[in-house]
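pasting for ref
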Amino acid sequence: MAEERDANSTVILGAATPQPAQSAIHQNALPIGAKLGEFEIIDLVGEGGFGIVYLAQDHSLHRKVALKEYMPASLASRGHDASVSVRSERHRETFGIGLRSFVNEARILAQFDHAALVKVYRFWEANGTAYMVMPFYSGQTLQDALRARDDAPEEAWIRKILSPVMDALAIIHEEQIYHRDIAPDNIMLLAGDRPVLLDFGAARRVISDMTQALTVILKPGYAPIEQYAEMPGMKQGPWTDVYALAAVVYFMILNRKPPPAVGRMMQDSYEPLMLSEMAGRYSDQFLQGIDRCLNVKAEDRPQSIAAMREAIGFTTTSAAPAHHAPARPVAPPPVAAPSAAPSAAPKPAPKPAPKAVAKPVPATATDHADEPKASKLPLIIGAAVVVAAVAGGAAYYATQKKAASPSPATIAAPQVTPAVKAPPPPVATPAPVPRFTSLTAAIDGALAAADPRFTTTLDTPATITVGSDLKLTAYSKADSLLYLFLWDQATDKIYRLTPSEKDADNAIKANGSFAIPRKDSAKFAAREPLGTWRVIAMTSEKPRDFSKTPFARDGDFLQVERGVLEAKLATDGLASLFGTPQCAAASCADHFALSVANITKEAAPAPVVKPTVPAPKPATPQATPSPSKKAPDSEREYMKRLNKDLDNLLGK
Protein backbone atom coordinates (compact mmCIF):
# COMPACT_ATOMS: atom_id res chain seq x y z
CA MET A 1 0.00 0.00 0.00
CA ALA A 2 1.63 3.16 -1.14
CA GLU A 3 1.58 6.25 1.01
CA GLU A 4 4.36 8.85 1.04
CA ARG A 5 5.80 9.85 4.40
CA ASP A 6 5.53 13.50 5.26
CA ALA A 7 9.01 14.86 4.73
CA ASN A 8 8.54 17.37 7.53
CA SER A 9 7.29 14.98 10.17
CA THR A 10 9.60 13.96 12.95
CA VAL A 11 10.09 10.26 13.61
CA ILE A 12 9.47 10.00 17.34
CA LEU A 13 10.01 6.31 17.90
CA GLY A 14 12.46 4.12 16.09
CA ALA A 15 12.16 0.87 14.28
CA ALA A 16 13.84 -2.28 15.52
CA THR A 17 17.19 -1.25 14.05
CA PRO A 18 18.08 2.47 14.21
CA GLN A 19 19.68 4.14 11.24
CA PRO A 20 23.43 4.67 11.60
CA ALA A 21 24.44 8.23 12.22
CA GLN A 22 26.42 9.76 9.37
CA SER A 23 27.88 13.13 10.17
CA ALA A 24 28.25 13.97 6.49
CA ILE A 25 24.51 13.63 6.01
CA HIS A 26 23.14 14.68 9.39
CA GLN A 27 25.15 17.83 9.97
CA ASN A 28 22.77 19.13 12.63
CA ALA A 29 22.78 15.95 14.74
CA LEU A 30 24.77 15.66 17.94
CA PRO A 31 27.71 13.25 17.66
CA ILE A 32 27.61 9.70 18.98
CA GLY A 33 28.86 9.71 22.56
CA ALA A 34 27.57 13.19 23.38
CA LYS A 35 26.13 13.40 26.89
CA LEU A 36 23.13 15.38 28.08
CA GLY A 37 23.02 14.88 31.82
CA GLU A 38 22.57 11.16 32.50
CA PHE A 39 21.74 10.47 28.83
CA GLU A 40 24.42 9.39 26.37
CA ILE A 41 23.65 9.39 22.65
CA ILE A 42 24.42 6.00 21.13
CA ASP A 43 22.69 6.26 17.74
CA LEU A 44 20.52 8.35 15.46
CA VAL A 45 16.91 7.28 14.96
CA GLY A 46 15.57 9.93 12.61
CA GLU A 47 15.77 13.56 11.56
CA GLY A 48 12.94 15.75 10.28
CA GLY A 49 12.50 19.38 9.43
CA PHE A 50 11.75 20.35 13.02
CA GLY A 51 13.49 17.85 15.27
CA ILE A 52 16.02 15.07 15.69
CA VAL A 53 15.44 11.82 17.55
CA TYR A 54 18.35 9.89 19.08
CA LEU A 55 18.69 6.51 20.70
CA ALA A 56 20.22 7.24 24.11
CA GLN A 57 21.39 5.29 27.12
CA ASP A 58 19.94 6.41 30.43
CA HIS A 59 22.85 5.76 32.79
CA SER A 60 20.72 6.60 35.82
CA LEU A 61 18.00 3.97 35.25
CA HIS A 62 20.06 1.70 32.96
CA ARG A 63 17.70 1.62 30.00
CA LYS A 64 17.57 2.76 26.40
CA VAL A 65 15.33 5.72 25.62
CA ALA A 66 14.33 7.90 22.67
CA LEU A 67 15.62 11.45 23.11
CA LYS A 68 14.00 14.11 20.92
CA GLU A 69 15.68 17.46 20.32
CA TYR A 70 13.96 20.61 19.04
CA MET A 71 15.93 21.50 15.92
CA PRO A 72 14.10 23.41 13.14
CA ALA A 73 16.72 23.13 10.41
CA SER A 74 15.28 26.00 8.38
CA LEU A 75 15.60 28.42 11.31
CA ALA A 76 18.63 27.28 13.32
CA SER A 77 22.01 25.58 13.10
CA ARG A 78 24.40 23.75 15.39
CA GLY A 79 27.44 25.49 16.79
CA HIS A 80 30.82 23.94 17.63
CA ASP A 81 29.86 23.74 21.32
CA ALA A 82 26.67 21.69 20.60
CA SER A 83 24.50 24.77 21.17
CA VAL A 84 21.67 25.67 18.80
CA SER A 85 21.30 29.23 17.53
CA VAL A 86 19.07 30.96 15.02
CA ARG A 87 20.42 31.49 11.53
CA SER A 88 19.09 35.03 11.29
CA GLU A 89 17.73 37.61 13.69
CA ARG A 90 14.47 37.69 11.76
CA HIS A 91 13.93 34.03 12.71
CA ARG A 92 14.44 34.55 16.44
CA GLU A 93 10.79 35.14 17.34
CA THR A 94 9.58 32.18 15.26
CA PHE A 95 12.26 29.92 16.75
CA GLY A 96 11.33 31.01 20.28
CA ILE A 97 7.61 30.41 19.81
CA GLY A 98 8.32 26.99 18.31
CA LEU A 99 10.58 26.18 21.26
CA ARG A 100 7.84 27.00 23.74
CA SER A 101 5.37 24.90 21.75
CA PHE A 102 7.81 21.97 21.84
CA VAL A 103 8.12 22.26 25.63
CA ASN A 104 4.37 22.62 26.05
CA GLU A 105 3.80 19.49 23.96
CA ALA A 106 6.21 17.56 26.19
CA ARG A 107 4.45 18.89 29.26
CA ILE A 108 1.05 17.86 27.88
CA LEU A 109 2.18 14.34 27.03
CA ALA A 110 3.82 13.97 30.45
CA GLN A 111 0.38 14.46 32.05
CA PHE A 112 -1.09 11.35 30.47
CA ASP A 113 -0.36 7.71 31.05
CA HIS A 114 -2.12 5.62 28.40
CA ALA A 115 -0.73 2.70 26.44
CA ALA A 116 -1.73 4.26 23.11
CA LEU A 117 -0.08 7.63 23.85
CA VAL A 118 3.63 8.32 23.76
CA LYS A 119 4.87 8.64 27.35
CA VAL A 120 7.24 11.50 28.14
CA TYR A 121 9.57 10.65 31.02
CA ARG A 122 11.06 14.12 31.35
CA PHE A 123 11.87 17.29 29.41
CA TRP A 124 14.18 20.27 29.85
CA GLU A 125 15.85 23.19 28.07
CA ALA A 126 19.58 23.38 27.41
CA ASN A 127 22.07 24.35 24.67
CA GLY A 128 19.68 27.02 23.40
CA THR A 129 17.02 24.41 22.61
CA ALA A 130 14.85 21.79 24.36
CA TYR A 131 14.71 18.01 24.78
CA MET A 132 12.18 15.37 25.75
CA VAL A 133 12.84 11.75 26.74
CA MET A 134 10.44 8.95 25.81
CA PRO A 135 10.39 5.15 25.72
CA PHE A 136 12.22 3.58 22.80
CA TYR A 137 9.90 1.07 21.17
CA SER A 138 10.54 -1.40 18.38
CA GLY A 139 7.85 -1.58 15.77
CA GLN A 140 6.63 -0.25 12.45
CA THR A 141 4.21 2.46 11.45
CA LEU A 142 0.70 1.57 10.36
CA GLN A 143 1.66 2.94 6.96
CA ASP A 144 4.51 0.42 6.63
CA ALA A 145 2.34 -2.42 7.93
CA LEU A 146 -0.32 -1.69 5.31
CA ARG A 147 2.29 -1.44 2.58
CA ALA A 148 3.48 -4.95 3.43
CA ARG A 149 0.00 -6.45 3.06
CA ASP A 150 -1.36 -7.92 -0.17
CA ASP A 151 -4.98 -7.06 0.56
CA ALA A 152 -7.14 -4.94 2.81
CA PRO A 153 -7.21 -5.93 6.49
CA GLU A 154 -10.23 -7.56 8.10
CA GLU A 155 -12.75 -5.49 10.04
CA ALA A 156 -11.78 -7.18 13.32
CA TRP A 157 -8.14 -6.16 12.85
CA ILE A 158 -9.12 -2.57 12.02
CA ARG A 159 -11.29 -2.40 15.13
CA LYS A 160 -8.39 -3.78 17.19
CA ILE A 161 -6.24 -0.85 16.04
CA LEU A 162 -9.02 1.72 16.34
CA SER A 163 -10.20 1.02 19.88
CA PRO A 164 -7.01 1.98 21.81
CA VAL A 165 -6.42 5.01 19.57
CA MET A 166 -9.95 6.25 20.22
CA ASP A 167 -9.46 5.69 23.95
CA ALA A 168 -6.30 7.83 23.84
CA LEU A 169 -8.00 10.59 21.84
CA ALA A 170 -10.96 10.64 24.23
CA ILE A 171 -8.55 11.24 27.13
CA ILE A 172 -6.75 14.18 25.52
CA HIS A 173 -10.04 15.65 24.26
CA GLU A 174 -11.23 15.85 27.87
CA GLU A 175 -8.43 18.40 28.39
CA GLN A 176 -9.36 20.32 25.19
CA ILE A 177 -6.23 19.00 23.49
CA TYR A 178 -6.48 17.84 19.89
CA HIS A 179 -3.94 15.85 17.90
CA ARG A 180 -4.69 17.38 14.45
CA ASP A 181 -2.13 15.24 12.64
CA ILE A 182 -3.55 11.71 12.63
CA ALA A 183 -2.31 9.70 9.65
CA PRO A 184 -0.98 6.18 8.98
CA ASP A 185 2.62 7.35 9.46
CA ASN A 186 1.76 8.74 12.92
CA ILE A 187 0.41 5.47 14.32
CA MET A 188 3.05 2.95 15.34
CA LEU A 189 2.33 -0.74 15.78
CA LEU A 190 4.29 -2.51 18.50
CA ALA A 191 4.38 -6.20 19.36
CA GLY A 192 0.96 -7.79 18.96
CA ASP A 193 -0.10 -4.89 16.70
CA ARG A 194 -0.60 -2.65 19.73
CA PRO A 195 -0.96 0.93 18.43
CA VAL A 196 0.76 4.03 19.79
CA LEU A 197 -0.28 7.49 18.60
CA LEU A 198 2.79 9.53 17.65
CA ASP A 199 3.92 13.07 16.92
CA PHE A 200 1.56 15.79 18.07
CA GLY A 201 3.97 18.13 16.26
CA ALA A 202 3.01 21.30 18.16
CA ALA A 203 6.25 23.09 17.28
CA ARG A 204 5.90 22.15 13.63
CA ARG A 205 2.39 23.53 13.48
CA VAL A 206 3.13 26.85 15.16
CA ILE A 207 6.22 27.46 13.01
CA SER A 208 4.28 26.59 9.89
CA ASP A 209 1.44 28.86 10.99
CA MET A 210 3.90 31.74 11.34
CA THR A 211 5.55 31.06 7.98
CA GLN A 212 2.20 30.34 6.30
CA ALA A 213 3.45 27.00 4.94
CA LEU A 214 0.14 25.14 5.12
CA THR A 215 1.45 22.23 3.07
CA VAL A 216 3.80 21.38 5.91
CA ILE A 217 1.14 20.95 8.56
CA LEU A 218 -1.77 19.64 6.51
CA LYS A 219 -1.87 16.19 5.00
CA PRO A 220 -4.37 16.37 2.14
CA GLY A 221 -6.94 13.63 2.50
CA TYR A 222 -6.56 13.39 6.28
CA ALA A 223 -7.05 17.06 7.23
CA PRO A 224 -10.68 18.26 7.46
CA ILE A 225 -11.77 21.57 5.99
CA GLU A 226 -11.61 23.45 9.32
CA GLN A 227 -7.83 22.91 9.47
CA TYR A 228 -7.33 24.91 6.29
CA ALA A 229 -8.72 28.08 7.84
CA GLU A 230 -10.05 28.81 11.31
CA MET A 231 -13.11 30.98 10.77
CA PRO A 232 -16.55 31.48 12.35
CA GLY A 233 -18.58 28.31 11.97
CA MET A 234 -15.49 26.20 11.21
CA LYS A 235 -13.83 25.78 14.59
CA GLN A 236 -11.55 22.83 15.34
CA GLY A 237 -12.50 20.35 18.03
CA PRO A 238 -12.91 16.61 18.68
CA TRP A 239 -14.67 16.32 15.32
CA THR A 240 -11.39 17.35 13.66
CA ASP A 241 -9.62 14.22 14.94
CA VAL A 242 -12.75 12.16 14.17
CA TYR A 243 -12.40 13.09 10.48
CA ALA A 244 -8.68 12.29 10.35
CA LEU A 245 -9.08 8.93 12.10
CA ALA A 246 -11.93 7.99 9.76
CA ALA A 247 -9.70 8.95 6.80
CA VAL A 248 -7.09 6.51 8.11
CA VAL A 249 -9.74 3.74 8.14
CA TYR A 250 -10.78 4.74 4.60
CA PHE A 251 -7.18 4.33 3.50
CA MET A 252 -6.91 0.96 5.26
CA ILE A 253 -9.96 -0.33 3.38
CA LEU A 254 -9.54 1.15 -0.13
CA ASN A 255 -5.75 1.65 -0.28
CA ARG A 256 -6.27 5.33 -1.13
CA LYS A 257 -6.96 8.53 0.76
CA PRO A 258 -10.25 10.39 0.59
CA PRO A 259 -10.21 13.41 -1.73
CA PRO A 260 -8.79 16.57 -0.09
CA ALA A 261 -11.44 18.33 1.96
CA VAL A 262 -10.80 21.72 0.38
CA GLY A 263 -11.56 20.27 -3.07
CA ARG A 264 -14.70 18.58 -1.78
CA MET A 265 -16.06 22.00 -0.83
CA MET A 266 -16.08 22.91 -4.54
CA GLN A 267 -17.07 19.54 -6.03
CA ASP A 268 -17.41 16.52 -3.79
CA SER A 269 -15.86 13.51 -5.51
CA TYR A 270 -15.90 11.38 -2.36
CA GLU A 271 -16.80 7.73 -2.99
CA PRO A 272 -18.84 6.38 -0.05
CA LEU A 273 -17.56 3.10 1.33
CA MET A 274 -21.08 1.73 1.13
CA LEU A 275 -20.95 2.16 -2.66
CA SER A 276 -17.39 0.91 -3.08
CA GLU A 277 -16.14 -2.50 -4.13
CA MET A 278 -15.59 -3.30 -0.45
CA ALA A 279 -19.29 -3.17 0.40
CA GLY A 280 -20.30 -6.57 1.71
CA ARG A 281 -16.85 -7.42 3.03
CA TYR A 282 -17.38 -5.17 6.05
CA SER A 283 -20.49 -4.65 8.16
CA ASP A 284 -22.94 -2.02 6.91
CA GLN A 285 -22.91 -0.09 10.19
CA PHE A 286 -19.11 0.09 10.14
CA LEU A 287 -18.95 1.45 6.58
CA GLN A 288 -21.87 3.83 7.06
CA GLY A 289 -20.33 5.11 10.29
CA ILE A 290 -16.98 5.85 8.61
CA ASP A 291 -18.80 7.61 5.76
CA ARG A 292 -20.61 9.76 8.30
CA CYS A 293 -17.35 10.64 10.06
CA LEU A 294 -15.98 11.86 6.73
CA ASN A 295 -18.68 14.45 6.08
CA VAL A 296 -17.12 17.69 4.86
CA LYS A 297 -19.15 19.89 7.19
CA ALA A 298 -18.03 19.50 10.79
CA GLU A 299 -21.58 19.70 12.17
CA ASP A 300 -22.58 16.65 10.10
CA ARG A 301 -19.93 14.43 11.74
CA PRO A 302 -20.00 12.74 15.16
CA GLN A 303 -19.01 15.47 17.60
CA SER A 304 -16.96 13.30 19.96
CA ILE A 305 -15.05 10.05 20.11
CA ALA A 306 -17.93 8.52 22.08
CA ALA A 307 -20.31 9.45 19.24
CA MET A 308 -17.86 7.99 16.71
CA ARG A 309 -17.79 4.73 18.67
CA GLU A 310 -21.55 4.54 18.53
CA ALA A 311 -21.64 5.40 14.82
CA ILE A 312 -19.29 2.57 13.79
CA GLY A 313 -20.81 -0.02 16.09
CA PHE A 314 -18.62 -0.20 19.19
CA THR A 315 -21.15 -1.32 21.79
CA THR A 316 -18.83 -1.02 24.80
CA THR A 317 -15.86 1.09 25.68
CA SER A 318 -12.64 -0.25 27.07
CA ALA A 319 -11.55 -0.15 30.68
CA ALA A 320 -10.86 3.05 32.56
CA PRO A 321 -7.88 5.00 31.19
CA ALA A 322 -4.56 3.97 32.66
CA HIS A 323 -3.81 7.42 34.06
CA HIS A 324 -6.74 7.09 36.48
CA ALA A 325 -6.05 5.41 39.80
CA PRO A 326 -7.40 1.84 39.75
CA ALA A 327 -10.10 0.96 42.27
CA ARG A 328 -8.82 -0.72 45.39
CA PRO A 329 -10.06 -4.23 46.25
CA VAL A 330 -12.84 -4.22 48.82
CA ALA A 331 -11.76 -5.87 52.07
CA PRO A 332 -14.02 -8.73 53.21
CA PRO A 333 -16.26 -7.80 56.14
CA PRO A 334 -15.64 -9.62 59.43
CA VAL A 335 -17.80 -12.71 59.94
CA ALA A 336 -19.53 -12.65 63.36
CA ALA A 337 -19.21 -15.77 65.53
CA PRO A 338 -22.54 -17.63 65.84
CA SER A 339 -24.25 -17.22 69.19
CA ALA A 340 -25.55 -20.42 70.90
CA ALA A 341 -29.17 -20.17 72.10
CA PRO A 342 -29.89 -23.15 74.49
CA SER A 343 -33.64 -22.85 74.12
CA ALA A 344 -33.61 -22.59 70.34
CA ALA A 345 -34.27 -25.67 68.32
CA PRO A 346 -31.42 -26.52 65.99
CA LYS A 347 -32.03 -25.24 62.46
CA PRO A 348 -31.13 -27.25 59.40
CA ALA A 349 -27.70 -26.39 58.07
CA PRO A 350 -27.84 -23.99 55.13
CA LYS A 351 -26.55 -25.17 51.84
CA PRO A 352 -23.02 -23.96 51.23
CA ALA A 353 -22.85 -21.06 48.81
CA PRO A 354 -21.26 -21.81 45.47
CA LYS A 355 -17.59 -20.92 45.29
CA ALA A 356 -16.85 -17.61 43.62
CA VAL A 357 -14.63 -17.95 40.62
CA ALA A 358 -12.73 -14.89 39.45
CA LYS A 359 -12.96 -15.05 35.69
CA PRO A 360 -9.81 -13.99 33.89
CA VAL A 361 -9.99 -10.64 32.13
CA PRO A 362 -8.66 -10.89 28.59
CA ALA A 363 -5.82 -8.53 27.82
CA THR A 364 -6.91 -5.78 25.49
CA ALA A 365 -4.90 -4.01 22.87
CA THR A 366 -4.42 -1.10 25.25
CA ASP A 367 -2.34 -3.12 27.70
CA HIS A 368 1.21 -1.85 28.13
CA ALA A 369 3.92 -4.25 29.19
CA ASP A 370 5.85 -1.63 31.15
CA GLU A 371 2.99 0.49 32.50
CA PRO A 372 0.35 -0.08 35.23
CA LYS A 373 -2.92 -1.35 33.80
CA ALA A 374 -6.25 0.15 34.73
CA SER A 375 -8.90 -2.53 34.39
CA LYS A 376 -11.71 -4.12 36.35
CA LEU A 377 -9.52 -6.98 37.55
CA PRO A 378 -8.94 -5.54 41.07
CA LEU A 379 -12.68 -5.12 41.51
CA ILE A 380 -13.35 -8.69 40.34
CA ILE A 381 -10.72 -10.11 42.66
CA GLY A 382 -12.01 -7.98 45.54
CA ALA A 383 -15.58 -9.16 44.96
CA ALA A 384 -14.38 -12.76 44.74
CA VAL A 385 -12.63 -12.41 48.10
CA VAL A 386 -15.80 -11.04 49.69
CA VAL A 387 -18.01 -13.80 48.26
CA ALA A 388 -15.50 -16.51 49.17
CA ALA A 389 -15.22 -15.19 52.72
CA VAL A 390 -18.99 -15.13 53.17
CA ALA A 391 -19.34 -18.63 51.66
CA GLY A 392 -16.54 -19.97 53.85
CA GLY A 393 -18.12 -18.43 56.95
CA ALA A 394 -21.49 -19.96 56.13
CA ALA A 395 -19.98 -23.41 55.54
CA TYR A 396 -17.99 -23.19 58.78
CA TYR A 397 -21.13 -22.15 60.64
CA ALA A 398 -23.11 -25.11 59.23
CA THR A 399 -20.33 -27.60 60.10
CA GLN A 400 -20.08 -26.34 63.67
CA LYS A 401 -23.84 -26.53 64.12
CA LYS A 402 -23.94 -30.10 62.80
CA ALA A 403 -21.11 -31.28 65.05
CA ALA A 404 -22.57 -29.69 68.19
CA SER A 405 -25.94 -31.47 68.14
CA PRO A 406 -26.32 -32.99 71.67
CA SER A 407 -29.31 -32.09 73.82
CA PRO A 408 -29.70 -28.44 74.67
CA ALA A 409 -28.77 -29.09 78.31
CA THR A 410 -25.28 -30.29 77.41
CA ILE A 411 -24.35 -27.52 75.03
CA ALA A 412 -21.16 -25.90 76.29
CA ALA A 413 -20.38 -22.23 76.09
CA PRO A 414 -18.27 -21.32 73.10
CA GLN A 415 -14.57 -21.10 73.74
CA VAL A 416 -13.01 -17.71 73.34
CA THR A 417 -9.53 -17.63 71.84
CA PRO A 418 -7.46 -14.86 73.38
CA ALA A 419 -6.51 -12.18 70.90
CA VAL A 420 -2.96 -12.23 69.71
CA LYS A 421 -1.30 -8.88 69.96
CA ALA A 422 -0.15 -7.73 66.56
CA PRO A 423 3.51 -6.81 66.27
CA PRO A 424 4.18 -3.09 65.95
CA PRO A 425 4.50 -1.85 62.39
CA PRO A 426 8.05 -1.46 61.14
CA VAL A 427 9.46 2.03 61.32
CA ALA A 428 9.79 3.43 57.83
CA THR A 429 13.26 4.57 56.96
CA PRO A 430 13.12 7.98 55.30
CA ALA A 431 14.25 8.02 51.71
CA PRO A 432 17.64 9.64 51.13
CA VAL A 433 17.50 13.25 49.99
CA PRO A 434 18.82 13.62 46.41
CA ARG A 435 21.85 15.90 46.35
CA PHE A 436 23.28 17.80 43.40
CA THR A 437 26.76 18.95 42.52
CA SER A 438 25.65 21.76 40.20
CA LEU A 439 22.78 24.19 39.82
CA THR A 440 22.01 22.88 36.33
CA ALA A 441 21.68 19.33 37.67
CA ALA A 442 19.40 20.60 40.45
CA ILE A 443 17.08 22.31 37.96
CA ASP A 444 16.96 19.14 35.86
CA GLY A 445 16.27 17.12 39.00
CA ALA A 446 13.39 19.42 39.94
CA LEU A 447 11.93 19.11 36.44
CA ALA A 448 12.05 15.33 36.76
CA ALA A 449 10.46 15.41 40.24
CA ALA A 450 7.61 17.76 39.28
CA ASP A 451 4.03 16.52 39.57
CA PRO A 452 2.65 15.98 36.02
CA ARG A 453 -0.85 16.88 37.23
CA PHE A 454 0.37 20.44 37.76
CA THR A 455 1.21 22.42 34.66
CA THR A 456 3.17 25.66 34.54
CA THR A 457 3.98 27.59 31.38
CA LEU A 458 6.22 30.61 30.92
CA ASP A 459 5.74 33.23 28.23
CA THR A 460 9.01 35.16 28.01
CA PRO A 461 10.83 37.21 25.38
CA ALA A 462 13.83 35.59 23.73
CA THR A 463 15.97 38.70 24.34
CA ILE A 464 16.02 41.72 26.62
CA THR A 465 17.89 44.97 26.14
CA VAL A 466 20.14 46.22 28.90
CA GLY A 467 18.25 48.87 30.81
CA SER A 468 14.83 47.28 30.13
CA ASP A 469 12.65 45.71 32.81
CA LEU A 470 11.89 42.00 32.88
CA LYS A 471 8.44 41.23 31.44
CA LEU A 472 6.91 37.75 31.45
CA THR A 473 3.71 35.86 32.14
CA ALA A 474 3.35 32.58 34.03
CA TYR A 475 0.33 30.33 33.55
CA SER A 476 -0.90 27.57 35.86
CA LYS A 477 -3.37 24.75 35.30
CA ALA A 478 -4.30 24.47 38.99
CA ASP A 479 -4.77 26.78 41.95
CA SER A 480 -1.21 27.36 43.14
CA LEU A 481 1.42 29.76 44.43
CA LEU A 482 4.11 31.15 42.14
CA TYR A 483 7.80 31.26 43.11
CA LEU A 484 9.91 32.93 40.45
CA PHE A 485 13.71 32.57 40.31
CA LEU A 486 16.23 34.14 37.95
CA TRP A 487 19.77 32.90 37.40
CA ASP A 488 21.96 35.60 35.88
CA GLN A 489 24.63 33.40 34.32
CA ALA A 490 26.85 36.38 33.53
CA THR A 491 27.22 37.32 37.21
CA ASP A 492 26.49 33.83 38.62
CA LYS A 493 23.86 35.22 40.98
CA ILE A 494 20.46 33.68 41.60
CA TYR A 495 17.53 35.91 42.54
CA ARG A 496 14.14 35.07 43.99
CA LEU A 497 11.77 37.59 42.46
CA THR A 498 8.36 36.37 43.63
CA PRO A 499 7.10 36.85 46.27
CA SER A 500 9.07 40.05 46.88
CA GLU A 501 9.46 42.61 49.63
CA LYS A 502 6.99 44.95 47.96
CA ASP A 503 4.53 42.35 46.69
CA ALA A 504 3.85 39.27 48.79
CA ASP A 505 0.87 38.14 46.70
CA ASN A 506 1.92 35.18 44.53
CA ALA A 507 -1.36 33.28 44.08
CA ILE A 508 -2.51 32.02 40.66
CA LYS A 509 -6.03 30.78 40.05
CA ALA A 510 -6.63 27.58 38.08
CA ASN A 511 -6.12 28.22 34.34
CA GLY A 512 -5.06 31.75 35.25
CA SER A 513 -1.95 33.86 34.72
CA PHE A 514 0.52 35.99 36.67
CA ALA A 515 2.22 38.87 34.85
CA ILE A 516 5.55 40.46 35.78
CA PRO A 517 5.91 43.36 36.55
CA ARG A 518 2.78 43.97 38.59
CA LYS A 519 1.28 47.29 39.59
CA ASP A 520 3.20 48.94 42.44
CA SER A 521 5.64 45.99 42.62
CA ALA A 522 9.40 46.19 42.25
CA LYS A 523 10.84 45.92 38.75
CA PHE A 524 13.87 43.86 37.82
CA ALA A 525 16.02 45.55 35.17
CA ALA A 526 18.62 44.00 32.88
CA ARG A 527 22.17 45.19 33.60
CA GLU A 528 25.57 44.49 32.13
CA PRO A 529 27.54 42.26 31.71
CA LEU A 530 25.82 40.69 28.73
CA GLY A 531 24.88 37.04 28.98
CA THR A 532 21.89 34.78 29.58
CA TRP A 533 19.18 34.85 32.17
CA ARG A 534 17.66 31.50 33.10
CA VAL A 535 14.16 32.03 34.50
CA ILE A 536 12.62 29.26 36.62
CA ALA A 537 8.92 29.41 37.50
CA MET A 538 7.70 27.06 40.23
CA THR A 539 4.00 26.69 41.05
CA SER A 540 3.39 24.95 44.36
CA GLU A 541 0.21 23.53 45.84
CA LYS A 542 1.25 24.70 49.32
CA PRO A 543 3.18 27.76 50.53
CA ARG A 544 6.89 27.12 50.84
CA ASP A 545 9.32 27.64 53.68
CA PHE A 546 12.65 29.23 52.64
CA SER A 547 14.07 29.63 56.14
CA LYS A 548 16.86 27.10 55.45
CA THR A 549 17.86 28.49 52.07
CA PRO A 550 20.99 30.66 51.67
CA PHE A 551 19.20 33.60 50.04
CA ALA A 552 19.93 37.05 51.47
CA ARG A 553 18.18 40.39 51.02
CA ASP A 554 19.39 42.46 48.06
CA GLY A 555 17.19 45.53 47.69
CA ASP A 556 13.65 44.43 46.90
CA PHE A 557 14.68 40.86 46.09
CA LEU A 558 16.59 37.92 47.57
CA GLN A 559 19.83 36.71 46.00
CA VAL A 560 22.62 34.19 46.50
CA GLU A 561 25.95 33.48 44.80
CA ARG A 562 26.00 30.30 42.72
CA GLY A 563 28.97 28.85 44.61
CA VAL A 564 27.20 29.30 47.94
CA LEU A 565 24.00 27.75 46.62
CA GLU A 566 25.76 24.76 45.07
CA ALA A 567 27.48 24.03 48.37
CA LYS A 568 24.05 23.82 49.99
CA LEU A 569 22.65 21.75 47.13
CA ALA A 570 25.39 19.19 47.72
CA THR A 571 24.26 18.71 51.34
CA ASP A 572 20.57 19.61 51.53
CA GLY A 573 19.31 18.95 48.00
CA LEU A 574 16.51 20.85 46.27
CA ALA A 575 15.25 22.37 49.54
CA SER A 576 18.27 24.71 49.38
CA LEU A 577 16.82 26.38 46.30
CA PHE A 578 13.08 25.74 46.28
CA GLY A 579 12.38 25.46 50.03
CA THR A 580 9.96 22.94 51.47
CA PRO A 581 6.13 22.80 51.50
CA GLN A 582 4.43 24.04 54.67
CA CYS A 583 1.76 21.78 56.10
CA ALA A 584 0.17 20.96 59.46
CA ALA A 585 1.62 17.45 59.59
CA ALA A 586 5.26 16.64 60.18
CA SER A 587 5.66 16.01 56.46
CA CYS A 588 3.43 16.14 53.39
CA ALA A 589 3.57 15.38 49.69
CA ASP A 590 5.26 18.06 47.63
CA HIS A 591 3.06 18.81 44.61
CA PHE A 592 4.66 21.37 42.32
CA ALA A 593 5.35 22.13 38.67
CA LEU A 594 8.33 23.78 37.01
CA SER A 595 8.92 25.70 33.80
CA VAL A 596 12.26 27.04 32.57
CA ALA A 597 13.05 29.67 29.93
CA ASN A 598 16.20 31.42 28.73
CA ILE A 599 16.44 35.15 27.96
CA THR A 600 19.50 36.66 26.30
CA LYS A 601 20.68 40.10 27.45
CA GLU A 602 21.60 42.35 24.55
CA ALA A 603 23.36 45.68 24.52
CA ALA A 604 21.19 48.72 24.08
CA PRO A 605 21.49 50.17 20.58
CA ALA A 606 23.72 53.23 20.38
CA PRO A 607 21.68 56.42 20.10
CA VAL A 608 21.61 57.87 16.61
CA VAL A 609 23.24 61.32 16.73
CA LYS A 610 22.34 63.57 13.86
CA PRO A 611 25.03 66.10 12.74
CA THR A 612 24.40 69.60 13.99
CA VAL A 613 24.13 72.06 11.10
CA PRO A 614 23.65 75.74 11.99
CA ALA A 615 20.35 76.95 10.71
CA PRO A 616 20.61 79.73 8.13
CA LYS A 617 19.72 83.17 9.40
CA PRO A 618 16.46 84.39 8.00
CA ALA A 619 16.82 87.22 5.50
CA THR A 620 15.70 90.66 6.64
CA PRO A 621 12.28 91.21 5.11
CA GLN A 622 11.93 94.27 2.88
CA ALA A 623 9.14 96.57 3.78
CA THR A 624 6.94 96.71 0.74
CA PRO A 625 3.56 98.36 0.57
CA SER A 626 0.65 96.04 0.33
CA PRO A 627 -0.67 95.87 -3.22
CA SER A 628 -4.22 96.05 -1.97
CA LYS A 629 -3.67 99.28 -0.14
CA LYS A 630 -2.37 102.62 -1.32
CA ALA A 631 -0.80 105.40 0.61
CA PRO A 632 -3.23 108.22 1.37
CA ASP A 633 -1.39 110.82 -0.83
CA SER A 634 -1.35 108.54 -3.84
CA GLU A 635 -5.06 107.98 -3.43
CA ARG A 636 -5.81 111.69 -3.53
CA GLU A 637 -3.68 112.19 -6.63
CA TYR A 638 -5.45 109.30 -8.31
CA MET A 639 -8.87 110.77 -7.52
CA LYS A 640 -7.81 114.16 -8.84
CA ARG A 641 -6.70 112.68 -12.17
CA LEU A 642 -9.87 110.65 -12.42
CA ASN A 643 -12.10 113.70 -11.84
CA LYS A 644 -10.10 115.72 -14.35
CA ASP A 645 -10.51 113.02 -17.00
CA LEU A 646 -14.24 112.85 -16.33
CA ASP A 647 -14.51 116.67 -16.74
CA ASN A 648 -12.73 116.54 -20.09
CA LEU A 649 -14.97 113.70 -21.20
CA LEU A 650 -18.13 115.66 -20.32
CA GLY A 651 -16.79 118.79 -22.06
CA LYS A 652 -16.52 120.99 -19.07
